[in-house]
Amino acid sequence: MAAPISRSGPEPAAAPYGNFPNYSRFHPPEGRISLLPQGLLRSLFPAATRPLLGLDVGCNSGELSVALYQHLLGLQDSSSSPEPAGADKELKLLCCDIDPELIRRAQQSSPFPASISFASLDIMDSGAREPFLSSFLQRFGCSSFDIGFCMSVTMWIHLNHGDRGLLEFLALLASLCTFLLVEPQPWRCYRAAARRLRRLGRDDFEHFRSLRINGDMAESITRILTQECAMELVCSFGSTSWDRSLLLFRSTAARPEGSD
C-alpha cells in the first residue's frame, strides 16, 4: 500500500487503510476477548515446550494485541486463579501495521516489550515483508508462526488491492500460520468506508466498484481459506456487539507444535 494519510491532517475519519488513530475507543478489545475461551493456547498446543510464535497483522496502536497476549496467557486472571490458563506457555508476538505513527504509540505504551514486538510494515510489500518475517522466525529456529491474528483487516486489504490482493493476502497468512484467527468485516462496512471517503471529498477506493468477491464476507473468506488455502474451520466463537464473526482456522498441511 501507499503511505497512510498524515496524522496532522484534518480528516482522520477517512483512514483509507483502516489506520484510525483512536480505533480501540469505538471497538474496545474486550468485545473480542470476551468471546475467546480461557485456556485457548493450551488447548491448541497442549504439549508445546518452546516459545510459541504469534503474528498480528494490522495491529493499529497495539491495544488489542496486548489484550490478546494477556488473555492467551491468562495474565488478567493471575490474581484470582492459582494456575492461569496459559501459565505454562510462552508466547512471542510480532505485531505489524502500515502506519508508523500507530506503531510508535504501540511501542511507547507496551507493557510487555520483551514478548511483544511492534513494527511498521506493509504486509503486501513482499520485498519488505519476506526478509523481515524471515529474520524474526529465524531467531527462534522456526519457519512459520504457530498462530496468526487478522482482526478487522481483510476489508482494507480488499479495498486497496482488489479481489486478487485479498486472495494473495489470505494465501500468505495460510502459508505463514498453523492457526489463524480472523475477524472479517461484513459488506456493509465496505459501503460505509466508501461513503466516508466520498463525504470528505476524497477519491473512492480504486477497486470498490469492481469487487466480485462481495456479499457475505465471512462466508467468502471461509470458502477461500478452506477451499483454496489448505485450511479448515476449527471454530466460530460467535460475533461481537458490532456484528463481526471471530473465526479460527487450522492449516491442514501443518502439525501444530505439541499436538498429539
Keywords:
260 residues, alpha/beta, seven-stranded mixed beta sheet, 7 strands, 37% helix, disordered N terminus
- Mean pLDDT metric: 90
- Spatial strand order of the main sheet: 3-2-1-4-5-7-6
* Sheet with the most strands, sense and barrel status: 7 strands, mixed
Structural classification: alpha/beta
Portion in strands: 15-25%
Order of helices and strands: HHHEHEHEHEHEHHEE
Give the helix proportion (percent range).
25-40%
Termini, distance in Å?
41 Å
Total number of helical segments?
A: 9
Total count of strands:
7
Using only C-alpha atoms, the radius of gyration works out to 18 Å
List unreliable stretches of 5+ residues. Answer: 1-12, 78-84
Overall, the morphology is globular
Question: Can you walk me through this structure?
Answer:
- It is a single chain.
- The protein has 260 residues and is an alpha/beta fold.
- It is built from 9 helices and 7 strands, in the order αααβαβαβαβαβααββ.
- The model is unreliable at 1-12 and 78-84 (pLDDT under 50).
- It has helices at residues 23-26, 30-33, 40-44, 63-73, 100-109, 126-139, 154-176, 187-199, 217-228, and strands at 52-57, 91-97, 116-120, 145-151, 177-183, 231-239, 245-251.
- It is globular and about 50 Å long.
- The protein has a 7-stranded mixed beta sheet, sandwiched between helices.
Helices and strands, with pairings:
Blueprint: H1 23-26, H2 30-33, H3 40-44, E1 52-57, H4 63-73, E2 91-97, H5 100-109, E3 116-120, H6 126-139, E4 145-151, H7 154-176, E5 177-183, H8 187-199, H9 217-228, E6 231-239, E7 245-251
Parallel strand pairs: 1-2, 1-4, 2-3, 4-5
Antiparallel strand pairs: 5-7, 6-7
Helix pairs in contact: 7-9
